[in-house]
Structure formats: structure tokens, C-alpha cells
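TASK: fixed-backbone design
INPUT:
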């Protein structure tokens, strides 16, 4: 696989723009609590750029599910601005919902026990908006507050790409179920939770894809080997 930095250079050939983006990302990571590293967000950024390079005629939005304090949102909004796109950000803004999911270890062997208790990873709506306004471009962002199973069934937008960082298997199922059918041809879905066994089970569930998403399970890039999973919608 081409290293992510090479992919970034390839899809953002303007050295000055790359420098602006990486400098802004470093600032955001210092100022806002971010439970991701640069390679995680760059996975989505590269896909954003690839999509817009290949589908300049479409008007699809980028969506994010699970934004914590808004650090990733601020970063994505700056890229969205350079691409002339808008974003919709879905989150409870109350942290992780009540759940009984038994997460123990990631596929890389580190413990994730008690990571995803009710209320964990909370970023309030006002806090998120403040961080995006301060460090990103809030003019491009719409914020939808509520639990995914309440807000996503009514989704009615054309999606170019979706970033899912929701931790729970149940939340992942809901996001895939409603985001994937709304992806435009050539659109993509990226999950940051590909190292969690319960999330892997969702992505690898043929019956779920066929009965709930309404299509045959697509190829899941990175499945069982990578934290970052990527799924594409056929052109």
C-alpha cells in the first residue's frame, strides 16, 4: 500500500496547500483534545480529495458521525473548504449511549475494557461549535444533535463521504445502515473503529448488509488488519 503521506502528496499536489493543512492540523491537535493521530484523519482527507478530483460534477456532502470535542471536525472543515464542499456532523453531544457491549481487547492486543461506558467521549454541542469556529470553518458545517437511531432514519442528503468514529458496534450498524445507501456513486465510508472486534463483526456480517443495508456486502478494505476501514460505493 502507498504510504499515507505519499497518497496525500499525490492527491494534494500543491505543496503550499499541503503545508497549510498540516500546520493547521498540528495547531488543532495541540489546542483540542483529539483521540486520533494524523494518519487517522489523513485517511479520510485523502479520500475526500480523491473523490472531489474524480467527481467534480457532483454536489455531495461530507458527513461525520461521532466528533467528540470537534478536533476532527475542525480539520475536515478546512479540507472541505478547499474542496468547495459542506459538512454535516452527527453526534449525541452527550457522549456514548447506555450499552451492554462487552469490549475487551483490540485486534492489536491492547485492552479496551471500560472504554465505552455511558457518557464517555462527551463533547457538548457548544464546545464543539466553539472549537470548530476557532480552528476550522464553521460556516460549512451543520450540526445534528441526537442519538443516531433517532436522527439518521430521516436522513435525506447526498453523501460524498462519511467518517464514522462511534466506538460501539450498535452505533456502527446504525451509521452504515443509513449512510451507505445515501452514498453517491464513487462515494466512500471510513471507520476509525476497525480494530474493535465487535465493530469488525458488523462490517463482516453478510446478513446485515443484505437485509438491513439492502445490498451485497462490499469489499471492506483493511478488515481485520487495520484500524482504518474503507468501503466504496460502486460508480
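OUTPUT:
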Amino acid at each position: 500500500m502507498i504510504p499515507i503521506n505519499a497518497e496525500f502528496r499525490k492527491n494534494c499536489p500543491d505543496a503550499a496547500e499541503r503545508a497549510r493543512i498540516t500546520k493547521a492540523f498540528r495547531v488543532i491537535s495541540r489546542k483540542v483534545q483529539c483521540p486520533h493521530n494524523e494518519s487517522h484523519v489523513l485517511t479520510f482527507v485523502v479520500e475526500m480529495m480523491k473523490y472531489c478530483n474524480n467527481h467534480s460534477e457532483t454536489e455531495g456532502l461530507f458527513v461525520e458521525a461521532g466528533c467528540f470535542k470537534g478536533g476532527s471536525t475542525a480539520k475536515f472543515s478546512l479540507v472541505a473548504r478547499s474542496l468547495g464542499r459542506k459538512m454535516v456532523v452527527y453526534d449525541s453531544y452527550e457522549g456514548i449511549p447506555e450499552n451492554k457491549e462487552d469490549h475487551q481487547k483490540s485486534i492489536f492486543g491492547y485492552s479496551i475494557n471500560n472504554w465505552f461506558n455511558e457518557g464517555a467521549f462527551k463533547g457538548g454541542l457548544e464546545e464543539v461549535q466553539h472549537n470548530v469556529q476557532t480552528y476550522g470553518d464553521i460556516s460549512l458545517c451543520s450540526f445534528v444533535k441526537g442519538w443516531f437511531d433517532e436522527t439518521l432514519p430521516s436522513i435525506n442528503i447526498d453523501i460524498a463521504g462519511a467518517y464514522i468514529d462511534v466506538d460501539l458496534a450498535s452505533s456502527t450498524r446504525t451509521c452504515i445502515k443509513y449512510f451507505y445507501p445515501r452514498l453517491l456513486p464513487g462515494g466512500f465510508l471510513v471507520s476509525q473503529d476497525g480494530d474493535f472486534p465487535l465493530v469488525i463483526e458488523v462490517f463482516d456480517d453478510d446478513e446485515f448488509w443484505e437485509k438491513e443495508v439492502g445490498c451485497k456486502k462490499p469489499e471492506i478494505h483493511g478488515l481485520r488488519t487495520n484500524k482504518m476501514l474503507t468501503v466504496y460505493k460502486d460508480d
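COMMENT: The chain has one domain: 4-232.
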